[in-house]
Amino acid sequence: LFGAHLQMTENIKATLTGDAQIVPPALINIFNTSEAIEDPESVRRLLAEEPGISGQAERVIGQGIVASATRSLGTFIVGYDPKEEERIQSRRTLVAGVPLSPSDEKGAIIGEKMRQTLELQLGEKIVLTAQDYYGSMAGGIFTLLGTFETGNDQVDNGTVMILKKTAQQFLSFDRRVSKIVLKLSPDAPIGPVVHRLQERLQGTGLKVLTWEDLLPMLSQMIRFQD
After folding, report:
1. With the C-alpha atoms ordered 123, 124, 130, 133, is the resulting torsion angle positive or negative?
2. For every residue of the chain, which 3-state class applies, written as one string?
3. Rounded to an integer, what distance in angstroms lies between the CA atom of residue 120 and that of residue 102?
4. Cα gap 151→171, rounded to integer Å
5. % residues pLDDT > 70 (the chain)
6. What region does 27 belong to: left with phi over 0, alpha with psi -120 to 50, or beta?
7. Angle, to 10 degrees, between the axis of helix 216-225 and the axis of helix 2-12?
């Protein structure tokens, strides 16, 4: 049972949460996309001075609709930087196609289950619509380059991933990001690192949340089974 818990938490951290995240004040769980980090550069400088952090990845997140020629679904739109995701050892098993490269500004990858639901083939077009940072409607056409599988149905059937810089333009984020995902050094206890970061972020309104804070029901289930 302990082994199953360990595997479950490592999978969750590798596919969704990281060890911890720096988030805007309104974000209370993994599925909340309200607000943004207005000045990510100041946070980058702060993280560069924290020895307990081994990697970080910025993500831009929105909610919208993805449509194929025949069907449509509600979806999370996640903008990410492939190189940053490597630094935090983010893991999404590619089922088909190719991962996004820094030049794929109009490319997208989606969960394999979403591809099946939308009746899509690799290389076909998808249409994304979403509400941008200012409340206006945004729309764009993207090419499906690949599909992934995480083992989490909610992610695999409800996520469209595009490049971070594309998402910032698409959602009118400018330099803003939605969250910064952190990977801690193996010898760094999470409690003291989170405490130090939260102290240094006082006055910014930003919060530091562990994976347990972001997924409280899962954390409670594991504690109960323990």
Report:
1. positive
2. CHHHHHHHHHHHHHHHHCCEEEECCCCCCCCCCCCCECCHHHHHHHHHCCCCEEEEEEEEEEEEEEECCCCEEEEEEEEECHHHHHHCCCCCEEEEECCCCCCCCCEEEEEHHHHHHHCCCCCCEEEEEEECCCCCEEEEEEEEEEEEECCCHHHHCCEEEEEHHHHHHHCCCCCCECEEEEEECCCCCHHHHHHHHHHHCCCCCCEEEEHHHHCHHHHHHHHHHC
3. 23
4. 28
5. 97
6. beta
7. 170
* pLDDT band, residue 32 (cuts 50/70/90): low
The per-residue pLDDT of the chain, averaged, comes to 91
Which two three-digit tokens encode residue 105? Answer: 């500004």
Residue corresponding to tokens 């993500």: 59
Tens-place pLDDT, residues 165-179: 999 999 999 999 999
Which of 222, 174, 217, 182 lies closest to 198, judged by CA? 182
- For helices 190-200 and 40-48, angle between their N-to-C axes, nearest 10 degrees: 130
